[in-house]
Write a structure and sequence with these properties.
elongated
């Protein structure tokens, strides 16, 4: 009797879920609640179990699609962080201690 070992795509699912969690945290400004974290871990576990069966039935590179979706979420997260940050020219100009003492302050 032989047992077939089916590889999972967890290496693709975990970063995707993590990127999604990061985007939600960035948008809301709050960390995920314990309940939300439990839900995402449960969904990740289900997807982990389903992906080998799905991957066998699709005619495209599922790992590539998941990796691309992860990259997209990560990019959106970076864009949101940048949109929430002040422009470099809007930041106050830092002065050194020498400049402050020379100005008589």
């Amino acid at each position: 009797m032989t047992t077939d070992v089916i590889a999972t795509n967890s290496a693709a699912i975990t970063p995707l879920v993590t990127a999604g969690e990061g985007l939600v945290t960035t948008i809301t400004g709050k960390p995920l609640t314990d309940n939300a974290t439990k839900i995402t871990r449960g969904i990740m576990s289900v997807l982990d179990g389903l992906l080998p069966a799905v991957a066998e039935r699709v005619s495209f590179d599922l790992d590539g699609v998941l990796a691309g979706a992860t990259d997209a979420l990560t990019g959106i997260n970076k864009a949101v962080v940048a949109a929430k940050s002040p422009a470099p020219s809007a930041l106050p100009i830092a002065t050194t201690e020498t400049e402050t003492s020379q100005a008589g302050v």
